[in-house]
Specification:
Length: about 350
């Protein structure tokens, strides 16, 4: 049977290829999919919104930028590269607490809402002027346990504690659990800069003074609601400014202490690679679209058909040209022989 069909297929090869291409396109238009097993990741991206994140020591598009603006851009870039089935929640850190704005959402279905949430992050959303990162770690772990699914926390912070840590206010994290769920992303520079002092209308009135961060051991136990150990002093000169730096060494030490991971925030792609390395305990059967595969095969068939036609035309043209040249050569030779015979 195949002996009869083979010559027919070869003779009508171009028509068959175009017919197959049409069927593949119709199949792609139906948007078919196949079920596959996929690793599902869930992240709580936590932005430090304390006042030290207003320090302008970063750069965006070759222009100076605050640490918070840099963090927002980095969060945008990371989310834009995550697989569709990833779930994302946005959180805030201030004082000694962490708050999640909503339960994790599918990154593709709610992409616009998540990005708008990041756009509206602001230091004025903070509920206290303190920045007690070490104290907040157990609170963040408790928040992760309340999530409806296994969630990893990615905390974007400069690590600048205020009030400054000393023997009286350094919490012991020896028995801390849940460290595998934490990533600390350091934002800022090692050189640092003064912390802008802003009004409630976001207008700058100066820089925080060194005196504002001076904490005496005898007031270390005072609650944050009554005193943070600061006053409202504004630096009167450059040397009087409190210089805030990215506390890389402190963040590394804190990460080692609780078994978490520390990442420099200088390269968002580097951060994305590391947070996706871990294996997730959750899997789902998801629909994998194959319409693009059918469309690609259809394009291959169409190209093959037209390449074949071009090849035929080129071959026919070449053969005709050679035949005409050979015929002219033979005709010239015959005429030459006749002329030669007549000469003698």
């Amino acid at each position: 049977m195949h002996k009869k069909w083979l010559p027919f297929c070869l003779k009508h090869r171009d028509t068959l290829l175009l017919g197959i291409a049409l069927m593949l396109l119709l199949g792609a238009a139906l948007r078919p999919s196949i079920p596959i097993k996929r690793n599902i990741h869930t992240y709580l991206l936590i932005a430090d919104i304390t006042q030290s994140m207003n320090v302008v020591d970063m750069s965006l598009d070759h222009a100076p930028a605050s640490r918070l603006d840099y963090t927002k851009r980095m969060m945008h870039d990371i989310i834009a590269q995550l697989p569709c089935q990833t779930r994302i929640s946005i959180g805030l850190f201030a004082g000694d607490a962490v708050a999640a704005l909503y339960t994790p959402l599918h990154v593709c279905k709610h992409f616009s809402a998540i990005q708008q949430t990041i756009d509206h992050l602001d230091w004025r959303m903070a509920w206290t002027g303190n920045s007690q990162l070490r104290q907040s770690v157990p609170m963040a772990a408790k928040l992760l346990r309340q999530m409806p699914e296994a969630t990893k926390a990615v905390i974007f912070t400069d690590g600048d504690e205020a009030p400054l840590l000393h023997a009286f206010n350094t919490r012991n994290l020896k028995d801390f659990q849940g460290s595998d769920d934490f990533y600390f992303v350091g934002v800022g520079t090692d050189q640092g800069a003064g912390i802008p002092k802003l009004t409630e209308n976001n207008q700058m009135i100066g820089y925080w003074s060194n005196e504002s961060f001076a904490v005496q051991p005898n007031i270390a136990q005072v609650t944050a609601s009554k005193s943070s150990g600061r006053d409202d002093s504004v630096a009167v000169s450059d040397y009087d400014r409190y210089i805030s730096r990215r506390a890389s060494a402190y963040l590394k030490k804190l990460s080692e202490e609780i078994g978490a991971q520390y990442l420099d925030g200088d390269d968002p792609h580097h951060v994305l690679q590391h947070i996706q390395k871990h294996s997730s305990p959750r899997y789902e059967i998801v629909a994998y679209p194959i319409d693009w595969i059918l469309a690609t095969l259809s394009a291959v068939c169409i190209v093959s058909a037209y390449i074949n036609q071009d090849s035929k035309r080129q071959l026919t043209h070449t053969l005709r040209k050679r035949f005409t040249k050979l015929r002219q050569t033979r005709l010239f030779k015959a005429r030459h022989d006749v002329a030669h015979d007549n000469h003698f």
